[in-house]
Amino acid sequence: MTDAATDLRRHLGMLLGQGRAADAVALLTTRSQAGDAAAQYELGLWRLYGQCVERDPSAALDLFRDAAAQHHPEAVAAEIALLGNGMAGTVDPLAAQARVAALAASDPFYRHQQDLLEQIAAAPLPPAEVLSVDPDIRFYSDFLPPALCDHVMEAARARLAPSFVIDPVSRQRVPHPVRTSHGANFGPVDEDCIINAINRRIAAVTGTDWRAGEMLHVLRYTPGQQYRLHHDGLPNVSNQRQWTAIVYLNHGFDGGATDFPLLGLDVAPRRGGLLVFANTHGDGAIDPRTRHEGKPVDTGEKWVATRWIRTRPWSPWDEAPAR
Ligand SMILES: O=C(O)CCC(=O)C(=O)O
Ligand SMILES: [Fe+2]
């Protein structure tokens, strides 16, 4: 971030701290209309998330475009992310990939992304290994090439935070011993074209609509950490998590199997492999048999990326995040 952008953030923080949200919005609006890329980017985020202003995703995309035209790096990334995932209303993954290809000519960061995109495009879709017919549980070996597994871990690393659960009474996010890992979401502006391509590949092998997937969620477990017995279905939602897709991102650890104790099934993590299982019966009701756990890791670190796939297209603004 430039000094001017840091100053802007500090100034906004001060105004918000004093309860002067209207002044903060006025400042951002004036500066972005004057062509200040940092202000355009910030106001774009506020428009996207509805912070202090009415949520307006297409106005957000326009603001990111204006800032990106001035080579504001985060705005360039946000524009590419939103074109790929359609969360600002316009979906144009080919335009997003064309932006990456153009940037790759002069920017090593995007050259690497371009290289990874070519690798995933060239990797054949692996066949399913059926672990259970009913409930439906499948494993796909070599779903994700190693360099892409590395990219997911590196891209998530900076945002990892202790995992939480939603307290059913307070509805607040709280830490809980059921889940001692660290986690990170690839939110609407974090989903680079590689993550977008992975999400679409998960949709392709599962035969689901790519828009039905939640944001890809990375979990990192260190020794002793685990995800105790749970079910991925959610209480009181109309658009249920029909499927769970888990990509195992690394090797070099002991323990950490994904266990389905009611089925006597233990899945050993294999780097690049994808585990897919049904959380619901055909009629949409929760299938309790797919309760599962991430067993404690004994040595090393275990990394996974999970995509919970709903019955119908889903957006992060449809409901409060559940976990
Ligand atoms: O880490 C694992 O093996 C399980 C992860 C899991 O249950 C989930 O992400 O829903
Ligand atoms: Fe789970």
UniProtKB/TrEMBL annotation:
Residues 211-311 form the Fe2OG dioxygenase domain. Transmembrane segments: none annotated. Its cofactor is L-ascorbate. It comes from the Bacteria. Keywords: Dioxygenase, Endoplasmic reticulum, Glycoprotein, Iron, Metal-binding, Oxidoreductase, Vitamin C. This is Fe2OG dioxygenase domain-containing protein.
